[in-house]
Amino acid sequence: MAYAYLFKYIIIGDTGVGKSCLLLQFTDKRFQPVHDLTMGVEFGARMITIDGKQIKLQIWDTAGQESFRSITRSYYRGAAGALLVYDITRRDTFNHLTTWLEDARQHSNSNMVIMLIGNKSDLESRREVKKEEGEAFAREHGLIFMETSAKTASNVEEAFINTAKEIYEKIQEGVFDINNEANGIKIGPQHAATNASHGGNQGGQQAGGGCC
Amino acid sequence: MNFLRGVMGGQSAGPQHTEAETIQKLCDRVASSTLLDDRRNAVRALKSLSKKYRLEVGIQAMEHLIHVLQTDRSDSEIIAYALDTLYNIISNDEEEEVEENSTRQSEDLGSQFTEIFIKQPENVTLLLSLLEEFDFHVRWPGVRLLTSLLKQLGPPVQQIILVSPMGVSKLMDLLADSREIIRNDGVLLLQALTRSNGAIQKIVAFENAFERLLDIITEEGNSDGGIVVEDCLILLQNLLKNNNSNQNFFKEGSYIQRMKAWFEVGDENPGWSAQKVTNLHLMLQLVRVLVSPTNPPGATSSCQKAMFQCGLLQQLCTILMATGIPADILTETINTVSEVIRGCQVNQDYFASVNAPSNPPRPAIVVLLMSMVNERQPFVLRCAVLYCFQCFLYKNEKGQGEIVATLLPSTIDATGNSVSAGQLLCGGLFSTDSLSNWCAAVALAHALQGNATQKEQLLRVQLATSIGNPPVSLLQQCTNILSQGSKIQTRVGLLMLLCTWLSNCPIAVTHFLHNSANVPFLTGQIAENLGEEEQLVQGLCALLLGISIYFNDNSLENYTKEKLKQLIEKRIGKENYIEKLGFISKHELYSRASQKPQPNFPSPEYMIFDHEFTKLVKELEGVITKAIYKSSEEDKKEEEVKKTLEQHDNIVTHYKNMIREQDLQLEELKQQVSTLKCQNEQLQTAVTQQASQIQQHKDQYNLLKVQLGKDNHHQGSHSDGAQVNGIQPEEISRLREEIEELRSHQVLLQSQLAEKDTVIENLRSSQVSGMSEQALATCSPRDAEQVAELKQELSALKSQLCSQSLEITRLQTENSELQQRAETLAKSVPVEGESELVTAAKTTDVEGRLSALLQETKELKNEIKALSEERTAIQKQLDSSNSTIAILQTEKDKLYLEVTDSKKEQDDLLVLLADQDQKILSLKSKLKDLGHPVEEEDESGDQEDDDDELDDGDRDQDI
To answer: Which segment of this protein is annotated as the motif Switch 1 (chain A)?
Structure first.
């Protein structure tokens, strides 16, 4: 229950690329081949460990359909991380990435970590987007990149955890203002308490949190 | 107000005209005046008129006011007036004191103006942007205006806010406002905003609403806080009710733990303010929202677990058992505890262990049941207790067993000191209060729900009626009361209990049918043509009869399925029976009860159906109808079919098992095959590898041969390569010479060995001859000589071997040095090369030669190895010859011993002979002395001759 940090994520991308399946695989470790269309947003959560610290991930899985776009935009601002997902078997989902990215950059805080995900890597035979193209896009726009399969669970853990690692590093570097919850980051209750009572011991990583 | 009504009617009268004109003038000033002060004054004037002349101001000024909001943003004062005016026009709040008939009109007015205002969605967006102004005079009226817009026309305004970028997020910032009025009105605004809009509820939750609201509630002192706490709780309820995503977020955010503090209500506080009661009521409802039976099962159970783990359930149970709690709160607490424990084994177990702080302590369940069967308790409280009991038993076989056990003869407390749950239920079942009857019957039915064991156990229960009379079974007593014709509520309760009891339990059916009065009673009830009131009882009787048929195992001859069916046909008629059966589900209260598990009735008269019972009816109605319509033949056929099916099933399972076994075997065999295949492949590859290696070696050997020849040819021409590698051929030739030398050495050694062999042979032969001749003395010196010779030779050989091995090691080191040199050369060659092509060719050539040389050195090594092997062989031979020599020596020694022995014997004999000669001589002389003829001298002489001969032989031997 106790956690050192809490990160808020959003999952975005075209409809049918497997956003909900990625979340389900990450939180419940199962795959549901037939999934209802997500209406608006759905919530999921899981605890992970980075650098020996418990980190709670709260994830909002958004609807990919255009009609929900205005609703899902409301979630950009408060998120520390975003998983931008496309489907490697559908080129159009890859082509729309620019629009998604513009949208995300426009409405989110500038430090939001974005992970580009090419999902459905198990369907190699139907692949339309090469891995290199995804890598190139990510390089060009300064994103982390990964190909995953929500079906086989390949790289799913890594996608969520690597994003968290990136956020964690940014916190260490002092890029994020962890006291502003609007950034999608929160210090855990125990953590904050120990920080206040004997801040010197905890020191280092969140010196900015307790002292000032 | 007459005035207003006149306007609404469209009839304009004299005095209003002037007001309308004034408003028109003011509007013109707002629109046309260039001076801000002018405009501001005009808006202020409009504001003052807006309450009284709502319609006029609304119609004429709205457009201008909106324009002011757009253009005069820099002046907060005029904006504030404009917002206030709009609020007055749109809001109905101010009209509350107005009499009834006009309220209706003003409501219409408010919604109409709202419609006009939101016709341009930009107006709402404009309002949202104004809320970003920090100025209190802008923000506050803005909040109030938006709230009333939402109250008037929720869905369209919500939609506009949802679509405008960050609209909801901006409104969430209001909760962070340091000015309490704005924060509190912000809560009200969010209440209106989140009403029945899942998408907005989720965004608000995403923007940390839970955290903020829980903080506000804590700051305000939890349930002791004022109306702000109430507002926050209502907003929380809006966010959580029927919103699974938000409930999940609430649970995952560990907010359930924070609810525990809400219920830490001290006993010392006797005064319960109305606000506190309201707050606590809302808090309890919020708990119920999270564990509602209508939520997805997984969600509810995880919340239930969390509530137990954080101690929330324990806290609620403390309230349950505390004194001085208002009945209202107590009832809701019971309902809340019910839903927190419903279907959750851990929580149910905990609840069973809760004791009331009385002396002696009584289980909470008993204390609650006492209230349930107590006429003086409030109706809602009794309903709540029943619900709690139902929830305690829901999917709780253990609990069901414990309750039924309190009724069984073996476990009843003989002392009668403490009342048990079972006793209370029986008391309720047979009390004069029909409500108690109903509650107890339903409660008991829940102890049997889906639990065949307890249905059978309950058949054992015997009741002592009055002194002198024999005890009656509980089942019997129920039917007795039923036949006595008491209140409908009582009879319905008992019939529901009996239906639950008998369903899925053929033994209970047999018990029931065993009482010969029961079937006639049921058929009588169903067949009679009674009033509408009795229809429900008729339906229930039909259901009970149907259950007696459907779950009949034909163990009673008089009441087999067939006979009962015939009875229905004769006495009631199939159609009639089915119609009566249908009365149950057609009852108006039936569908009401089937919606929710909680027994929630507006008044005692409505207390007719139990939720679980409606499920049972749904399940049985169809099958009973089918069973009634089926003829006996069909029944038989069906049974036969069932039997054959069972047989088939058996066969199928048998085969299935067989297939499974075979499958296992197959799997094993497959594995074996695959391992064998694997091995086979491995072996084959090894073979091919080896073959190819051999081939390679052969090729290399051939190449070497050829290259060696070539090398000699090309040495001259390849000045570059030769210069670099020149040392190598020389070295090799030297090595070869050395090997040649070694070979000659070896030959020498071998010849020496052969010599030694002959010597050994000689030795052996001489030894043999020596033994036969018995002339060994001469043999030994020769032998010694030979041995010495051999030894010498051996040492010489050894030294030679030593030197050879030294040489070999030297050669080896030289060889390795050479190899190293060759390697370095091979590396250096490409660098030195001028043109790449040439160098490449050269290097390949050089490399080839190198490898050839390597091969040669290897061969040389092999030869060396062979030589060393031969050497060891020679050594072995030497060893063996040495050992034969040793053996010979020992034999020789033995022979020496024998010789010396025989010499000694000879000496002894000579001495003996000499003695005897002397004796003879002395005897002869004696005889001569005695004068005896000395003829015997010849004889003795002959004897002497013989002895001489012997002597000679001995002497020969000596010589």
So the answer is: 37-42
